[in-house]
Amino acid sequence: MSDLRDAMNISASGMRVQTKRIGIVTQNLANAESTGDNSGSQPYRRQIITFDEHLDKSSGIKIVTVKKITHDQNTPLNKRYQPEHPAADRDGYVLYPNVNRIIESRDMDEARRSYEANLNALDMSKNMLLRTIDMLR
Amino acid sequence: MSNKLNIFDALKINMAHATKRQEILVGNISRANMPKAKAMEVAPLNFDDLLKRKTTNMSITHPRHLTNRITNSNFKTIKDTQEYEVSMSGNNIDLVEQTKKLADNNANYQTVTNTYRKLMSLLKMTIGGK
Q1: What are phi and psi of B4, to 5 degrees?
Q2: Interatomic CA distance for residues A124 and A116, integer angstroms
């Protein structure tokens, strides 16, 4: 019985991290146009979430947790020619966030699928637990 | 009775195996988007295994004797040897395959619990219950 409860906890941890991931993706999408407000200021940088395994000491199972949320420093920032913008540099270019909407929506899709898979697994574990209790009847 | 394979014991072992497998498969699914994560499996249960488990039991002649309980540590966790697509991050967990295995495990568990109930009802019928 406790094994099934552990299985449900593992699924729940998977759902938790995928929810966090969706939060980060929506944050990136919402900030896709967040520039600085004066010349030389930095725009929003895309955030990346990574997962890691974590031993839950109370139950001895390995759950999934968020390892780190970092800024994407590798993808170059976008540049647009907008001389009238307050954040424009001397040549009239404004730095825009390095957010690619296609990548973000693909990421969102994957997170949703993983969430659904975890939810499905949790449902199956719950059914097994209920079936075990049903044996008493 | 002690030398023969007890059908209730066999069912119990089967249930414990299915429970352990559920835990491992669910773990695979939760790690589906983790870099370098590899799919795991539980070593399959075979008939010899059931017999062996039975014969290694020591008889219990005192209530304080330790029993050879069936725990999840009885089953070995192994690396999934089936070939799956490996992603760029070194992760080989395929959600579709894992979900399929989970459904299979569930069906197996249902078969076992139904058999258990059926056996119990047979026993009850024998002793004159309903």
Answers
A1: -80, 160
A2: 12
Q: Following CA atoms B86, B89, B95, B100 in sequence, which dihedral angle do they give, to the nearest 10 degrees? A: 40
Is this structure's pTM higher than 0.90? no
Task: For B29-53, write each residue's pLDDT tens digit.
Answer: 999 988 888 999 998 887 776 666 6
Of the candidates B49, B103, B124, the one whose C-alpha atom is nearest the C-alpha of residue A135 is: B124
| Residue B1, pLDDT score | 45
Alpha carbons A86 and A36: distance in angstroms, whole number? 8
Q: Stretch A49-56: mean pLDDT, rounded?
A: 92
ipTM for the predicted complex comes to: 0.78
Q: Which residues of A touch B (CB under 8 A)?
A: 3-4, 6-8, 10-11, 13-14, 17-18, 21, 50-53, 61-64, 110-111, 113-114, 117-118, 120-122, 124-125, 127-128, 131-132, 134-135, 137
User: Mind listing the pLDDT tens digit for each residue in B102-123?
Assistant: 999 999 999 999 999 998 888 8
Compute, in degrees rounded to 10, the torsion defined by CA atoms A20, B20, B91, B84. -130
What's the half-sphere exposure (Cβ side, CA atoms, 13 Å) at A87? 15
The encoded tokens of residue B55 equal: 């014969």
